[in-house]
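Quick one:
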Amino acid sequence: MARSKGLLSKGIPLSIHLRRRQQGDGKVSLYFEYYYGTSTSASGKPTQIRDYVYPGIFLNAQPKTKAEKDRNKELESLAKTIKAQMEVDLKKSQFGYKQAKGKGIQLLEYFNDQLNSRKESAGNFGNWRGALKHLTDYVTKHYYPALPLEAVDAGFMEGYKAYLTSTAKTTALNPLTSSSQNSYFAKLKACLKQAVKDDLLLRNPAEGVSLPRIVSTQRSYLTHEELQQLAKTECHYDVLKRAFLFSCLTGLRWSDIHKLLWKEVEVLGDGWRIVFRQKKTKGLQYLDISEQARSLLGEQRGADDRVFAGLSYSTSMNYALHQWMLRAGITKHITFHCARHTFATLQIYYGTDFFTLSKMLGHSELKTTMIYAQIIDSKRLEAANRIPLLPL
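Output:
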C-alpha cells in the first residue's frame, strides 16, 4: 500500500475518509484521506493538514458488463472494509490501546521477505516459492496486488483455502495434491504468525481456520518378486529399462534421472555417491547408491554427458513401459514415478527407518515420507502379532 512521506510524522489523525480520483486511463483510483485538523500560519491563515494513502485499488470508470459492475462492487466493498478497520484502529490509538506497526505493509511483499529469509534451506525455500506463486494468483484475481496485511481476515483465509482445494493448478495444469494444498496454506499461516511476532498484526487472522486435509491416495508400486521378474524381462528401450530399475534402487525422480550428468557420479571409498540438485525442490542432495545401481549407469563418458542419454518423456517410451510390464506379467497401472514408490515401499519393508528414508528421498518434511507407512500391510500384520499369546 503506497503512502505519502509525511504520514507517520503527523501523529494520530482525527478522521479517515474514503475518496476517489478519476484517472486518465479509464479507471477510478480509491484512496484514503487522513485529516489531522488545521494549523495557522504566521500571517494568521488557517491551513488544513491532510495526508493520503493509495492502496492500489482501481475501479472501471465506465463498467458495461455485469462482470465489470460486480468487480467494481467487490472492490468498493473491500475498500470500505479496510476503512472500517482503520477507523477501529484509530479509536484504539486515540484511547491509548496497543497498535500494530504494520499499517501499509503489503501481504505479498511481506510473504516474499519471509521467503527470502529461508534461502539457506533449499527444500523449504522451494515450498515457500511455490506457496508465493499461488498466493499471488489468488490475491491478484480476487483482491488487488497491493493488499495490506491488515486486510487479511478469516474470510480471506477461508477463500484462499477454497482456492487451493478447488481452483489452483500445477505448472502442468493439474489440480494440486492434498499434501501441496496443506503445505501452501501452512506457509501463509506461518507468515501471519510471524507478522504477529513482529508487531505488524495484533492477532493472527488464520487462528481457527484449519489446514486443508491431506487425503491418502492409492500409490502403485512393485513387490520385490515383481521387480525381479521385471529385471529378467526384455524392454524395447534398454535406456528405459536401466533408468526405471535405477529409480527402483535409488528412489530418484524421473526429472533428476533424466538430467543426471556423469560429473555428478562420484566414487566414495569402496562405493558410489550421486551429488545433484533436485529439479523439483532445488535442494542439493547427497545420495549413496549400491554397486548394482551403479552398474545400471553403464560405461562412464564425459563429465558433462548425460548418464541416461536417449531417455525422453514421449508417447513411444510410455507405451514401451506399458508393454514391458505386460510381458513381465504385471497388470498394475505402472508409471515411471511408481519406481520411486517401489523404492520407498521396499525400504520400509526391509526395515529402513522413516528419518533415513526421508533423507534418501529428498523430502523436506517427514510427514511426506510417513504417507508410505499406510501401504505396508504385511508390516502392520507383523506388528500386530508381536504380543505373545495370552493363556486364555
